[in-house]
Amino acid sequence: MLSWADVDVFPIAPLTIAAAEDLITRLEFNEKVKGNFTKLLRKDLFRTHYEFVSVPLLCTIMLLTYSDSGYISKNRHEFFEDAFTALWSKHDGRKDDFERHRYTGLQKNEFSKILTAFAMSSYSSADYNMRESHFHRHFEAAIRLSGVSCKEEDFLQDLTISTSLAVQDGPYIRFCHRAFQEYFSALFICEMSDTLVGRMIEEISDRMETDNVLPLVLSINDEKIEKHWILPSMKMIAAFVETADRDVDTYARTIVGEGEATSGIDIFNTMYKIRILYQFDPGFQLLRSAYDAARDMKIRVNRMGKGVFERDRRNFLNLTQRLMAKYERRSSALDELLSRSEHDTRIQSEP
């Protein structure tokens, strides 16, 4: 009897622009939409959205998104939002008013709640290829986290058939692309309680180099990550950064991870993550190279020139000042709004 161990699995080569155009041409879809999409593909989509248009299934999803919204957003989270809307209301390009059956019977906002919870549960466990037992565990977690109820089999059918957001590949179930799992995980974080979101962000912050969940959170709801994770972290490193101009060597050792173990390692990790999140220039590799060069030449960083480290220090000072001013303005504006509302209420209630 044939088992999965007897099957050879080969990865699919990425589509070239010619192959992507050929794929679109062969699809049974509105010819005008296909023509306009192909022009857009040649113009810049193959460059700006390569990770999607180079994969057959995702290229098809992008065509459907274009058909539904009339454009492809260059903003990552807006593109995913448009794609989900298109897939949820998916119609057959050959038939007007044709809509796929939805097995759960859930409304879009209800399905979104359980989907984001499912994505977060599977993502936090690093389950990207789920066997049936793993899928069941994350579905049960999603029910508890979202408060939305449906049958597991119906959820699976809507996930894989009605929306095509996931695929069954042999004994595994996975999102059609990791990027969708990351996007829905980011949505879940954006809706989390303020009292818990900082802990969740810290829990997954070590993945900053390998995925886009936290950059997506920053793009969708900046307050969730800036106010509840970055600003508290900044308080820990503010004094260190402000005084570093007097001792560049200590600053350099700390930010490359060779400072004192008592507090330096925490400062290093925090600054390392924030540097990635905001795409600071210089990045860590340049800072590390400058430090290693000084060490190899057996000279102090101060003697070699401190420009690159001063730029890094200035990046953190500017970020701290910008965020503090930003949230002070928001708080002040909210206080003003509430005061005006209370004043208007008193005026209306006076005889």
What descriptive keywords fit this protein?
3 domains, 68% helix, Arc Repressor Mutant, subunit A, mainly alpha, 17 helices, globular, single chain, two-stranded antiparallel sheet, 2% strand, 351 residues
Could you characterize the architecture of this molecule?
The structure is a single chain. The protein is mainly α and 351 residues long. It has three domains: 17-88; 108-190, Arc Repressor Mutant, subunit A; 221-336, no CATH class. It is 68% helix and 2% strand. It contains 17 helices and two strands. It has a two-stranded antiparallel sheet. The longest helix is centred in the C-terminal third of the chain and has 43 residues, at 307-349. The radius of gyration is 25 Å and the shape is globular. The model is unreliable at 92-96 (pLDDT under 50).
